[in-house]
Design goal:
By secondary structure, this protein is an all-alpha fold. It has one domain (3-9, 35-97). It has five helices and no strands. The chain has helices at 3-15, 38-48, 50-62, 70-80, 91-94. The protein is globular, with a radius of gyration of 14 Å. The mean pLDDT is 77.
Length: 99
């Protein structure tokens, strides 16, 4: 089993599902609003997950925490808005990439 692929699979699963409910946001109740549609959570989760794959690859190659990871957070932000109208970035899951 390739651990990088397993990390990618788990990140896609956990980022693609909105769990909480906040006023004005969609959540477990499934009520879509223009500010937070479920499709936006799914797209952002799938699009930005590849940065986690790249981070796992860097950790495995270096055998320790890599010197630079902020470029991966930038890539995740950039990818987060692909195929979404409005260009809002889903920052919460991207915070997992950086301390």
């Amino acid at each position: 089993m390739d651990i990088r692929r397993e990390i990618l699979r788990n990140i896609v699963l956990c980022q693609s599902l909105p769990l909480g409910t906040k006023p004005g946001r969609s959540g477990a109740s499934g009520a879509d609003t223009p500010a937070g549609k479920v499709e936006h959570f799914i797209l952002a989760g799938v699009n930005s997950s590849w940065a986690f794959y790249d981070l796992a690859d860097r950790v495995l190659q270096a055998g320790q925490q890599p010197d630079c990871i902020f470029d991966l957070a930038y890539e995740a932000q950039d990818a987060s808005v692909r195929n979404r109208l409005g260009g809002k970035v889903n920052y919460g899951p991207i915070y997992l990439l950086v301390p």
